[in-house]
């Protein structure tokens, strides 16, 4: 099975977590896109979706799935999204697609967070994937210096502006042995909007597509 087949397998398995008349949160990225396309086939079951990015909102609308504002819906029963890395404890790195801020907002507003991915995303320790951090542009150099002090190698994501008008710094070479502590430490730096560690609010379930079928963690 190739990576796309594994992503599709995980995405389609997430449909089982939807209840009739739910409004659900929908993430961003290629695996989330498979979920949106699968959702289109059962769209009558849900009342609508809250999207974690403009790109996902557009894809949902293209399937005639109503896109709702989180301020109007209140908390959600379910959020389905991909990840760049995941541990057995379901701590994640997210933000490869740059949508980490809205993803963290929707994840935190959701009772259940189902993370869907191919099994290459499962790691023993977070940090091989460069850690995305959304930063207010004025704080770019200050935050980058703090990342160097933490042992990382920060790199500005060139030519990229988030849906919120900010920049992304991707931090290489971090060994994230204590995800909750590092999430807290980076999140509290002035100028940081969101750090792409999802450990304080991890996923509740990991659905991983693999050669031997679906793995549920
Ligand atoms: C976007 C994300 C994505 O979930 C993450 O990058 C995984 O993407 P893909 O499903 O394309 O591998 O966090 O900001």
Helix proportion range: 25-40%
Structural class: alpha/beta
Oligomeric form: single chain
What profile does the largest beta sheet have? Answer: 6 strands, mixed
Strand order of the largest sheet: 2-1-3-6-12-13
Strand content: 25-35%
Spatial gap, N to C terminus: 20 Å
Radius of gyration: 17 Å
Describe the fold and architecture.
This protein is an alpha/beta fold and 217 residues long. The protein contains seven helices and 13 strands. The strands form three sheets. Strands 2-1-3-6-12-13 form a six-stranded mixed sheet. Strands 8-9-7-10 form a four-stranded antiparallel sheet. The chain is globular, with a radius of gyration of 17 Å. The mean pLDDT is 98. The structure holds ribulose-5-phosphate.
Concise synopsis of the structure shown:
The chain is an alpha/beta fold and 217 residues long. The chain has helices at residues 3-13, 30-40, 54-62, 70-73, 100-108, 140-149, 179-187; strands spanning 23-26, 48-51, 76-81, 85-86, 92-93, 110-118, 131-135, 153-156, 167-172, 192-195, 197-198, 205-210, 213-216. The radius of gyration is 17 Å and the shape is globular.
Keywords:
single chain; 217 residues; 13 strands; globular; binds ribulose-5-phosphate
Layout: helices, strands, pairs:
Layout: H1 3-13, E1 23-26, H2 30-40, E2 48-51, H3 54-62, H4 70-73, E3 76-81, E4 85-86, E5 92-93, H5 100-108, E6 110-118, E7 131-135, H6 140-149, E8 153-156, E9 167-172, H7 179-187, E10 192-195, E11 197-198, E12 205-210, E13 213-216
Parallel strand pairs: 1-2, 1-3, 3-6, 6-12
Antiparallel strand pairs: 4-5, 5-11, 7-9, 7-10, 8-9, 12-13
The structure holds ribulose-5-phosphate.
């Amino acid at each position: 099975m190739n990576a796309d087949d594994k992503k599709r397998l995980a995405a389609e398995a997430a449909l089982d977590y939807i209840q009739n008349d739910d409004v659900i949160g929908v993430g961003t990225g290629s695996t989330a896109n498979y979920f949106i396309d699968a959702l289109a086939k059962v769209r009558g079951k849900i009342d609508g979706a809250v999207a974690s990015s403009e790109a996902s909102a557009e894809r949902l609308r293209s399937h005639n799935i109503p896109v709702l504002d989180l301020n109007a819906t209140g908390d959600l029963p379910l959020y389905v999204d991909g990840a760049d890395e995941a541990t057995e404890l379901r701590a994640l790195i997210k933000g490869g697609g740059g949508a980490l801020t809205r993803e963290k907002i929707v994840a935190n507003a959701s009772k259940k967070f189902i993370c869907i991915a191919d099994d290459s995303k499962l790691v023993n320790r977070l940090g091989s994937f460069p850690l995305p951090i959304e930063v207010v542009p004025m704080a770019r150099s200050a935050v980058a210096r703090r990342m160097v002090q933490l042992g990382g190698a920060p790199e500005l994501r060139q030519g990229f502006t988030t849906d919120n008008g900010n920049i992304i710094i991707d931090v290489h070479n971090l060994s994230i042995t204590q995800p909750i502590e590092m999430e807290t430490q980076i999140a509290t730096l002035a100028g940081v909007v969101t750090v792409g560690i999802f450990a304080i609010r991890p996923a509740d379930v990991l659905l991983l597509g693999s050669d031997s079928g679906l793995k549920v963690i």
